[in-house]
Amino acid sequence: MIVRLFTPAYGLVAGVAKGVRGRRSTRVAALQPFNEVRVSWLGAGSLLTLTDIELDQRRMLHGQRLAAGFYVLEFLVRLLQEHDAHPSLYRLTQAVLGAMADGLPLAPLLRRFEHELLRELGFGVDFTCDLQGEPLVPGQRYTLADGESFVAVSSGGYSGAELLAIGADDYRLGTVRHNARLLFRELLDTHLGARPLASRSLLMSTTT
Predict the structure, then answer these.
(1) Torsional class of 175: left (φ above 0), alpha (ψ -120 to 50), beta (otherwise)
(2) Residues 85 and 177 placed together within one structural domain of the fold
(3) Quick check: helix, strand or coil at residue 71?
(4) Among 41, 58, 75, where does a domain finish?
(5) Cα separation of 171 and 104, whole Å?
(6) Is the same domain home to 34 and 67?
(7) Residue 52: partners with Cβ closer than 8 Å, 6 or more residues away
């Protein structure tokens, strides 16, 4: 079995897991998506040989949570470089998947993940100041300029209050959750290219 793992110290790694049938079939159960495992490997190239595999945490996701989990993993595979460590993103991914399994609301979890992913990739947006370096005003409307900063507009766009809340990962208000989804999608789609996320079509709920 060829698997891809997201690790705190080595980023994404690909490996071959042998002995996945018969008496060692427990490896298959351990290597299912969303699980947290401890592994050892041999080799140093692009395809490692996995040796010891130990299940630390099993996470069972169903329905919309299953789709949301694949949404998170697909972003990692599509946008991260192999062997490029992102320890803070790793910790957040573990926390988000754990919270999904525990039944916490999906929308705030996904927005928090998208926000951190952009920062980790170096594409984060300043949610405190506009393009001119002026602090965002709660009652002012803004639009995104060149995918990097915000400029004031007379109508449309996002309110300064919404942007400040998004910057603080405060998604208690429905309007903030909705606009954060639109904004992060606009920012992330620039880096995904022409091929859309397969998992996005599974997320049918308007709250995610």
Answers:
(1) alpha
(2) yes
(3) helix
(4) 58
(5) 13
(6) no
(7) 38, 39, 40
CA–CA dist 118, 111 (Å, integer) = 11
CB-based contact 183:157 (threshold 8 Å) = no
- What mean pLDDT, rounded, does the chain reach? 90
Cα–Cα distance for residue pair 109/107, rounded to 1 Å: 5
Write down the residue that tokens 């996945």 correspond to: 20
Of the candidates 176, 47, 205, 26, the one whose C-alpha atom is nearest the C-alpha of residue 111 is: 176
Residue 135 and residue 100 share a domain: yes
Q: 165 and 102, same structural domain?
A: yes
68 and 3, same domain (yes or no)? no
Q: Are 48 and 105 within one domain?
A: no
* Residue range(s) defining the domain that contains residue 106: 61-208
Task: Mark whether 127 and 35 lie in a shared domain.
Answer: no
Say whether both 122 and 195 belong to one domain.
yes
pLDDT digits (tens, 9 = 90+) for 92-136: 999 999 999 999 999 999 999 999 999 998 988 999 999 999 999
pTM: 0.89
Measure Cα distances from 168 to 16, 96, 143, 180 in Å.
Answer: 41, 17, 18, 11
How far apart are alpha carbons 112 and 92 in whole angstroms?
9
Q: Which helix (H) or strand (E) holds 159?
A: strand 158-159
Q: What does 168-182 look like in DSSP terms, one character per residue? A: TT---SHHHHHHHHH
